[in-house]
Amino acid sequence: MKIIHLSEKDISQSKQVSPCTLAVGFFDGIHRGHQRVILTAKRKAVELGIQSAVMTFDPHPSVVLNHSVKHAKYITPLAEKERILNNAGIDTLFVVHFDKSLASLSPEQFVEKFFVSQNVQHVVAGFDFTFGFKGKGTMKLLPEYARARFTTTTIEQVSEDGEKVSSTRIRDLLAEGDIALVNRLLDRPYRITGEVVTGDRRGRTIGYPTANLSLNSEYYMPKAGVYAVKVIIANQEYKGMANLGFKPTFNDGKVKNLEIHIFDFNQDVYGQEIAVDFYRHIRSEEKFNGVDELISQLKNDEVKSREILASL
User: Fold this and answer.
1) CA distances from 212 to 78, 188, 245, 258 (A)
2) Which terminus, N or C, of the chain has the lesser number of Cβ atoms within 10 Å?
């Protein structure tokens, strides 16, 4: 997949020469609603015999438009978004830098700079996608701005249990620890990637060695607690359990950690980047009265995690 970075200031210097269909949106999470937009654009590309493309934005508009937001948290940070789209077989990913200059464009200017100049032949977006100054451009108005230079498809709302599938809903579910429903809405396991770093090595002394992940501050983290997980290391998948939280039995409760105990595993993975797929929330994090009580609970957690992962 080719990745093209665009901004309002240098758009004239960067052009996608090959004609393409375009799925456009922020796409945080690339959930089932987003997937319908993206796969529709991909099918249209096959139908027209041209390339498929996705356009996303970075950073989140709230960082630019809302002065109270300094750093956004993402279900899928940009690197994760790139991985998913590459695996989906998308030909080109446009990453548009979102800044005040971009936000000030009229809808007509946005269309000229980011659709027409990139040789877009067909645009696909969700019914609620807006563009241009104060979001005045809508999918209903887009054919007017297109002036027959490209065609459009609008994807209507995708629902689950009578409620819209949305990034906001998924973030709320992550905060509640409802990973099972999150995974249904994403149509894949919720994933966090990071580098394995040296921890306090206490787990080794109690029979539960852990891989400690350096957490990317851009991830929207699930509720603290213990989870049944799968771990991907060098393209190999392993089962395990993870504790996401503050280790209150041993720590002062101020530094958030992600520790993974990988079942039946004894390799040295320090310094490697690994991926952790979350499947079920086992329990909330708690403080124990000593190591023996902690070990007893970890044994119970392992039994539950193995049972859950075996049933998938």
Assistant:
1) 22, 23, 12, 6
2) C
Average pLDDT over residues 277-292: 89
Tell the residue number behind the tokens 């044994």, with chain if given.
299
Domain edges within the chain: 2-160, 189-310
Looking from the CA of 6 toward its CB, the CA atoms found within 13 Å total: 26
How far, in Å, CA of 219 to CA of 193, rounded? 9
Pairing assessment for the beta strands 2-6 and 163-164 based on DSSP bridges: unpaired
Q: How confident is the model at residue 55 (pLDDT cuts 50, 70, 90)?
A: very high
Fold entry, domain 189-310: Elongation Factor Tu (Ef-tu); domain 3 (2.40.30)
Average pLDDT over residues 231-244: 96
Q: Is the pLDDT of residue 225 over 80?
A: yes
Residues 222 and 179: their CA atoms lie apart, in Å, by 8
Judge if 2-160 and 189-310 fold alike in CATH terms. Answer: no
Render pLDDT for 73-124 as a digit per residue (tens, 0 to 9): 999 999 999 999 999 999 999 999 999 999 999 999 999 999 999 999 999 9
- CA pair distance 71, 62, nearest whole angstrom: 9
Tokens of 164: 């819209």
CATH top-level class for 2-160? alpha beta
